[in-house]
Design brief:
Blueprint: H1 2-22, H2 42-65, H3 69-72, E1 92-95, H4 98-104, E2 129-132, E3 140-141, E4 144-145, E5 147-149, H5 166-171, H6 182-189, E6 195-197, E7 201-205, E8 208-212, H7 217-224, H8 238-252, H9 259-271, H10 273-325, H11 330-337, H12 342-351, H13 359-403, H14 406-409, H15 412-433, E9 437-440, E10 468-471, H16 474-511, H17 518-521, H18 523-565, H19 571-605, H20 609-622, H21 624-657, H22 660-663, H23 672-711, H24 721-727, H25 730-749
Antiparallel strand pairs: 1-2, 3-4, 5-6, 7-8, 9-10
Helix pairs in contact: 2-15, 2-16, 2-18, 4-8, 10-13, 10-21, 10-23, 11-12, 13-21, 13-23, 13-24, 15-16, 16-18, 16-19, 16-23, 18-19, 19-20, 19-23, 21-23
């Protein structure tokens, strides 16, 4: 049995070396493993592969059956899409009857209708629309008015029919009012067609003619002077109704964004793009590298400064509340300050006077602050020894960038993957979304309300009906939800794989004692091969849990938005939904925190997701003080780095834009502040990418240190020199390595 055990151990070592060669990694990269690395979470990997097969099938279905033009081009009242079929060449949707649009926003007077829009099922999609080649032009004269008439084939008994074609209609600017019979002219003056007055200018916005301007007052006066003409606005001036109908069409197109302001911002970026590149891309990269250098050489100073500052701040706040509560007299303070300056003593006396109200509450707050300050001070004393661990871990993590410079460029890999995923998903999602069926909608068919209110023949279902819209059956709705979840899971899987790769790089760097030859060993490529080959399933497990919570939060937000739009969001329901949203967000953050540690343990031990998560939590509980010290100090340093880099880049952008060329010259920008804000956001994102790698490196080195110490009786035998020096463990590590070498020699001899 003893001989069999020795042979088995030797076989495991040989297997590890063979697999390392197969994966393109140098021998010894996984020498810290107790058994050969194996593929993990295979069942979930199969499930993820089947999931993507379904995603590809749905994408293919969407490409085959979808029509993205349906999302851009509108339909006419017959349900035919603009610029397709009989409407080829007519790509602009135009709402014929401005009275219907006015009714949709409840702007009509009592002259034409006594039915309130709030009492019927009716909206702008049911208003009559046709397709035109270009938006019509308004004529504002006291002797005439512009008309837009329905398709010529829709008019029975037209004087020029059937020789009057659509092309003739287009050439006449869609106006054949002069050729109508007396009865048809009368119905047109009654807003029942076939021709309708043009009272507002329109401009194409997302292929729909959008109303703008104050209206054709002179033409409107002429219209009302005609026999049988109906004043649908009840005496209200056109310029009063214009904002309402303009907002209605803009809202129908998908939003109320100030387009003019966006255009100015776009123009600013066209002028100041050099500033964006220099201050928003180059500057944050340079500042991030400089900050990493500062961390590498001044980590100890920052660590102790943070501890001192936190305790000092707690003491100052406690003294302030004690002064306000009257527990400490101002004479105690002024007795010291008067020796320095009389004016300072007077100022502090005024500032430190007790409050006149809420004394009891202030005393309670003071006692609580005293307790917090004492606990914080004791916790600091307990962590002093662990601060050395934090300093060493951070130094090793930052120092890895010097030995492995390819880590700096690694974020480009997930960025490209995210872009490819986003482009594929967006394109196929558009096709899938547009594969619904165009159907007539249901609305209130009442003689006192649209659409029947504006129908010449209310019995003709071909011309008097509700509007058309794209509908999705339950299967397609389920497919769309599945596709949304697919994007969330796939994006989280990419992030998980990046975590595994980076954790693997830092793991190998640690267990090789920081002697990683970046050029020879290609650590990032080696880690990518290893993690992709062995642990793709593990990434699928962790990313699945996160994406589930993201999806539930997204559904909750959608439901809340719909309830708010329908006016059914009571305060109890709203606050309850916000509470659930917060709980889900917090749970997601906890799972993400556990996932990161699980990925690190997978890179260290080669175990499955659940095993790695459990081992990571157990290891962290055993070393809770060291974990707390590293977490607190590391997080504060990284947050300070992100904020400093963002502020520094924003300052650089502001100084550049303060130049005369951007203030008075040809390159003048309308809003320098907006560019500075965008630069700051860009800089913060770039700094976050750098700091996220450092943060993951810190967590990985910390768990490697804890695992290494656990395996070698409390001595990190494989730790890099920077960590050993910070902990003053050179002699112990040397003895541990000598002992380990003897054991290896004995095993080799046997």
């Amino acid at each position: 049995l003893g001989g069999y055990g020795k042979t088995s151990r030797l076989a495991r070592v040989v297997a590890v070396e063979h697999r390392a060669r197969v994966m393109g990694a140098p021998v010894g990269l996984d020498s810290h493993l107790k058994s050969p690395r194996r593929c993990t979470d295979l069942l979930f990997l199969i499930f993820y592969a089947a999931f993507w097969v379904t995603m590809l099938a749905l994408g293919g279905y969407g490409i085959k059956n979808g029509n993205p033009a349906a999302l851009v081009l509108g339909t006419d009242y017959q349900g035919v899409m603009c610029d397709e079929g009989n409407n080829t060449g007519l790509g602009k949707r135009y709402f014929l009857n401005v009275a219907e649009v006015a009714y949709a926003v409840n702007a009509l007077g009592s002259t034409i209708s006594s039915t309130s829009v709030t009492s019927v099922d009716y909206n702008l999609r049911d208003a009559k629309s046709i397709c035109l080649a270009d938006c019509p032009t308004m004529t504002n004269t006291a002797s005439g008015i512009s008309w837009v008439c329905n398709y010529p084939e829709s008019v029975e008994g037209h004087p020029n029919s059937p020789t009057y074609t659509r092309q003739d209609w287009i050439d006449a600017n869609y106006d054949y009012f002069a050729d109508l019979t007396a009865a048809e002219k009368t119905s047109s003056y009654e807003w029942k067609g076939p021709c309708y007055p043009v009272l507002y200018e329109t401009i194409s916005t997302f292929n729909t003619c959008q109303y703008f301007g104050t209206g054709a007052d002179d033409a409107w006066t002429y219209f009302k002077s005609q026999t049988n003409a109906v004043d649908v606005f009840g005496g209200t001036a056109l310029d009063e109704i214009a904002p309402q109908i303009s907002s209605a069409v803009e809202g129908f197109l998908g939003g109320d964004s100030p387009l003019a302001q966006i255009e100015r911002y776009i123009d600013d970026f066209q002028v100041g793009w050099k500033v964006l590149v220099l201050a928003g891309v180059v500057a944050p990269i340079v500042l991030s590298v400089l900050y990493l250098l500062i961390l590498r050489y001044f980590t100890g100073f920052f660590a102790y400064l943070i501890l001192f500052s936190v305790n000092a701040l707690a003491i100052v706040v406690t003294i302030y509340f004690a002064l306000k509560a009257g527990l400490i007299g101002s004479d105690v303070i002024t007795s010291y300050t008067s020796k320095v300056s009389g004016s300072a003593s007077t100022a502090i006396t005024n500032f430190a006077d007790p409050a006149e109200s809420n004394i009891a509450a202030l005393k309670i707050i003071t006692y609580c602050m005293i307790a917090v300050t004492v606990i914080l001070f004791l916790f600091t004393l307990m962590m002093l020894r662990r601060v050395k661990v934090a300093v060493g871990v951070i130094k090793v993590s930052v120092g890895a960038f010097g030995k492995i410079p390819s880590l700096i460029f690694f974020p480009l890999v997930p960025t490209v993957m995210m872009i490819l995923l986003g482009v594929y998903w967006l394109v196929t999602m558009i096709f899938l979304f547009s594969s619904g069926e165009m159907k007539m909608q249901s609305c209130t068919m009442d003689a006192g309300a649209p659409p029947m209110l504006f129908c010449k023949d209310t019995t003709n279902s071909d011309t008097c009906h509700c509007g058309y819209a794209t509908t999705w059956d339950r299967n397609l709705q389920g497919a769309l939800l599945f596709y949304v979840f697919g994007f969330l899971w796939s994006s989280q899987w990419i992030i998980a794989m990046c975590y595994l790769v980076v954790a693997c790089v830092f793991t190998q760097y640690y267990f090789l004692g920081g002697n990683y030859n970046a050029v020879k060993n290609s650590p990032v490529l080696s880690a990518m091969k290893k993690m992709t080959f062995y642990h793709t399933g593990t990434a699928a497990v962790g990313s699945f849990f996160v994406s589930i919570l993201q999806f539930v939060r997204l559904v909750m937000a959608f439901i809340l938005r719909r309830l708010k739009k329908l006016g059914k969001d009571s305060k109890i329901m709203k606050y309850g939904a916000y509470y659930i949203q917060y709980c889900l967000w917090y749970l997601q953050k906890i799972i993400e925190w556990i996932n990161r540690r699980a990925y690190i343990m997978t890179s260290i031990e080669g175990t499955s997701f659940c095993t790695s998560a459990w081992n990571a939590l157990a290891l962290m509980v055993k070393n809770v003080l060291a974990v707390a010290a590293v977490g607190i100090i590391g997080d504060i340093m990284l947050v300070l780095g992100k904020v400093s880099i963002a502020l520094g880049s924003g300052t650089i952008a502001f100084l550049i834009l303060d130049n005369e060329n951007f203030v008075y010259g040809d390159e003048k920008v309308s809003s320098p502040l907006f560019i500075v804000i965008v630069v700051g956001l860009f800089a913060f994102c770039i700094a976050s990418v750098f700091m996220s790698i450092v943060e993951l490196g810190i967590d990985t080195v910390l768990l490697c240190y804890c695992k290494d110490s656990e395996d070698h009786g409390g001595v990190p035998a494989n730790a890099p020199p920077a960590l050993i020096k910070a902990l003053n463990l050179a002699k112990k590590v040397k003895r541990a390595k000598i002992e380990e070498a003897k054991q290896r020699a004995d095993r080799s001899a046997q």
